[in-house]
Amino acid sequence: MLKQFKEPFQYRKTNEALGMTSGEPLAADKGKKKPRAKNTAETLRQMWGYLIAFKGKLAAVIVMVFLSSCFSLLGPYLAGTAIDQFLMNRDSGFVVFLIGMAVVYGLHSITMWLQSIWMITISQKTVYRMRVQLFDHLHRLPIPFFSKRQHGELMSRMTNDIENVSSSLNSSVIQVFSSVLLLIGTVSVMLSLSPVLTLLTFLVVPLMLLGMKWITKQTSRLFKAQQRNLGDLNGYIEETLSGQRIVKAFSQEETVIAAFKVYNERIRVSGFWAQTISGFIPKLMNALNNLSFAFIAGIGAVFVLNDAITVGVIVIFAEYSRQFTRPLNDLANQWNTLLSAIAGAERVFDVLGEEEERTDEGEARALAHVKGHVVFDRVTFAYEGREATISEVSFSLSPGETIALVGPTGAGKTTLIQLLCRFYDPSSGSIRIDGHDSRELKRENLRSHMAFVMQDPFLFEGTIRDNIRYGKLDATDQEVEQAARLANAHSFIVRLKDGYDAILKMDGSGISQGQKQLLAIARAILANPSILVLDEATSSIDTVTEIKIQEALHRLMQGRTSFVIAHRLNTIQQADQIVVLKDGTIIEKGSHVELLDQKGYYSALVNGQLQNGMLGELVE
Predict the structure, then answer these.
(1) What is the pLDDT of residues 345-369, one digit of tens each?
(2) Does residue 147 contact residue 284 with C-beta atoms inside 8 Å?
(3) pTM (predicted TM-score)
(4) Superfamily grouping for domain 40-352
(5) Beta bridge partners of 533
(6) What does the alpha-carbon distance between residue 440 and residue 463 come to, in Å, rounded to a whole number?
(7) Element (H, E) at 44
(8) Residue ranges of the alpha helices (H) in 503-568?
(9) Contact of 335 with 191, CB cutoff 8 Å
(10) How far, in Å, CA of 122 to CA of 135, rounded?
(11) Which residues, at least 6 apart from 392, have a Cβ–Cβ distance to it below 8 Å?
């Protein structure tokens, strides 16, 4: 934890802050590899894959954009023609042109409104689909992925990044397409009216393009850095808020605040330069636009005096010259949103490109019933890029037996459980369930026959009834209450104000650790598993509550194959087998009495405990 507090202070330089990344992406598992968004073109291609589902409505939007662009081009032409009509003839034709202008601008407003409404519908449905797909994909990723990513950083991709995409689709996509059409139409009309004045207008275009090229090159990098830094900040906020008890217990408030300021400074710096540099674009456009207008007004006046063109043409041309630079100006104004959206979409596609948990093999089977006969046969496993965590581990359990895993921290106890649940598969050797290699069983089916009671049980925000029912979603209220009675949880539940309908806050805050544990046991009882995993289920519990938990666990373990990771002697000595692990290998195996008779490692641990007077704890 101290490392996490100290790490931000290593990034003091601006260039380091801007280039800060949130960590290397997890290497993909073997198997079919999904495409990753590594550049703007690839990101846009993947975005198109979402938008193509609305091709009918997109076509309608394009038609409306085309019509609105035509009306936008027609308006200035009618205005100039009306002026010439008034100056030359001063007859009723002037009124007709005015009415025509009103109709044109009215139709322009209607088409603009329709394209906006339809595009908002498309964008909201698109980001809805992206959110669903991302959330679904996160639940299909392997456990190692989450161990290498901050939860807050993933949440940032789920919320901020997708919201940026939504904002861009709502406005920027239409603006870009409309601007392109206006540019083409405006240039065509301008050339037909006066090629000379058109060329004068084009004199500023190279300056615009050069300025935009330099600015966008800088801002693209800056907006990507801004999104990464925002993800890092969200991850740090989530981490520190989740660990508030530890922060306050060690009086580290000032430290985490100082670290937060560093993360916040990174966003400020990258955001400042991204917004500042991108802000040059509209300023540049306005300056060049005014320069172009001055050219047209001056040269056009000379042409009028020499009867080369009419006053109406000058009015039309002046408006078209602004209409020529306006799309460029609009593109510049939308560029911030576009770059931010592209950066956000790329971060979303980066997660979507991660390989899902390996699919079950084609011949994978589902077991309708599991007796609980478990065999570890010379199982070896190494995490990616590391030395073997466990090596040549072998043992077997008959249905209904209990095995206790004992050993110092890092001995491989938790790794064995993760292999049993198929969070990982063995590097070599096999794990057999009722004679079937676990790799031949469907993961979901295998885990459906298991239940877990952890050291720090996780409870969801909601009622106590719903938290217990999580073990079996179709359970009746009577079944939920019966499970609670068997878990010794009923008595404390009914004392609560709303009983089983009492609302628990996130992670069960508001009830004690022991009560959380009893609810977790009730949840496991309701699941009615064939294989049970208890990971430090009685640690950090007072003596009275421990008695209740032990009674509940005894009922839960009856007739079930149980894996117990515990340090308390009274939990371990009742096991049918005790496996002592050290450095990833089994050094002793047997019952409590047999291991004491061997006078080895386990015996030394127990004797050391008794000599130190700690009758409740198995000292490592």
Answers:
(1) 888 888 888 887 776 655 778 888 8
(2) no
(3) 0.62
(4) ABC transporter type 1, transmembrane domain (1.20.1560.10)
(5) 452, 563
(6) 37
(7) helix 40-51
(8) 513-527, 543-557
(9) no
(10) 20
(11) 378, 379, 380, 429, 585
